[in-house]
Amino acid sequence: MQILGIDVGGTGIKAAVVETADGELLSERVRIETPRPATPAAIGKALQSLVKQMEWSGPIGMGFPAAIQHGIARTAANIDKSFIGLPLERFFSEQTGCAVHVANDADVAGMAEMCFGAGRNVRGVVLIITIGTGLGTALFTDGRLLPNTELGHIFLDNGIEAERYAAESVRVAKKLKWKEWGHRFDHYLAAMEGLFWPDLIVLGGGVSKKLEKFAPMITIQTPVVAAGFLNQAGIVGAALYAESKIREET
Ligand code: BGC
Hints:
- With 250 residues, this protein is α/β, with parallel strands linked by helices.
- The chain has 2 domains: 2-107 and 232-249, ATPase, nucleotide binding domain (Nucleotidyltransferase, domain 5); 121-229, ATPase, nucleotide binding domain (Nucleotidyltransferase, domain 5, 2-Layer Sandwich).
- It contains 8 helices and 13 strands.
- The protein has helices at 40-53, 88-96, 105-116, 163-166, 168-173, 178-196, 211-214, 233-249; strands at 2-8, 12-19, 24-25, 30-33, 60-64, 68-69, 72-73, 100-104, 125-131, 135-141, 144-146, 200-204, 224-226.
- The strands form 3 sheets. Strands 1, 2, 3, 4, 5 and 8 form a 6-stranded mixed beta sheet that branches. The protein has a 5-stranded mixed beta sheet with strand order 11-10-9-12-13, covered by helices on one side.
- β10 (135-141) and β11 form a beta hairpin.
- The longest helix is centred in the C-terminal third of the chain and has 19 residues, at 178-196.
- The two termini are 14 Å apart.
- Bound molecules: beta-D-glucopyranose (BGC).
- The site of beta-D-glucopyranose has 16 residues, from α3.
């Protein structure tokens, strides 16, 4: 199936047409800034023009930076609080004129990695961590997702919420050197390892391209690898998620 995959992030919105049979991008990747304040009306309008610009009228899969329960946003850490309680699928379908299927951004990035990326054929427990404006997580066991794990919001033993300590946005805002940030991120990884004992940790988000810069600071025993799709896992996974919903409906 050909589906427009959209990855809505706290900073940027990225989209491309995806062939779901193999996760290949069939169009150029388009990126626009996430409007600020990131209200439903502003994001809806931005998506409307994005879809128009891409001349798309087919199905859309969307990864969204919130816990999404049956299409409804339940949290809003890096977007406007007025998203909480909003039926996103209905809202974005109305805004774009296309059938939109929405799930958590890290969950869909994880789906892409488990299907075609670094987690392919990996049994046992796999934790995907997307590093960006926030810290997103997706937890799989034998390839099955436990949805909406919001593990970027755990409090570390220093009393600080993990994503306020070790997200990419913190590295940039505090102008941390890779070494300093790497130690912070390792602190977070150690907390995840101690709680879940994963067999593999896959890192997504823009920082996944820079793993060699902070790999020396990683001390945990769990293997840590970059996402096979790097920063595109969210786009590909959004399309895969929509495909699975469309197949369920038909
Ligand atoms: C949100 C998650 C999201 C993550 C990455 C967090 O602040 O609570 O839902 O997956 O950021 O965007």
